[in-house]
């Protein structure tokens, strides 16, 4: 199996085996891989991923964003290499508040690592999974910010789609 991507736990500063530093050169194979922010043993750190990785969040963000993924190889599939959810994100009020802040803040809408979704996309996905209705307000707050004027209509369209989805889920 080829390299699983450099945005893995094996290169993450939250992996205990990396001593608080990012990069594979910091990985100590003598220390078991353990995610400090999720309190999670990582069996295969070079094929395990999350949105908190430094490539996705250049600022050290210790609040879990979305689930943990593992790399899967299926030689019979069209897309032979993919990432599947391994562990869901914890559902705590502080985490929900953090995700809402990510969505509402235009400065958070930077492009992440090429092979993964930006952290704001993961935040939106997680809030949808949690059926967090405050996501609509966070999107509307984002749309009102002058820094995203060019995308305002798209953001409001997304807020309407989220509202419609939540209405459909309730019915």
Low-confidence runs of at least 5 consecutive residues: none
**Overall number of strands:** 5
Provide the spatial order of strands within the biggest beta sheet: 3-4-5
- The tally of structural domains comes to 1
Strand content: 5-15%
Q: What oligomerization state is this entry in?
A: single chain
What is the number of helical segments per DSSP (H or I, 4+ residues)?
A: 4
Tell me the helix content: 25-40%
User: What do the pLDDT scores average to?
Assistant: 89
Net shape = globular
The ordered H/E elements are: EEEEEHHHH
Taking Cα atoms only, what radius of gyration do you get, to the nearest Å?
A: 17 Å
Major sheet, described briefly? 3 strands, antiparallel
How far apart the termini lie comes to: 45 Å
By helix and strand content, what is the structural category? alpha+beta
Task: Give your account of this protein's structure.
With 171 residues, the protein is of the alpha+beta class. It has one domain (9-170). The chain is 30% helix and 11% strand. The protein has 4 helices and 5 strands; from the N terminus they run βββββαααα. Helix 1 (93-104) packs across helix 2 (119-129), helix 1 runs parallel beside helix 3 (134-143) and helix 3 runs antiparallel to helix 4 (152-170). The longest helix is centred in the last third of the chain and has 19 residues, at 152-170. The radius of gyration is 17 Å and the shape is globular.
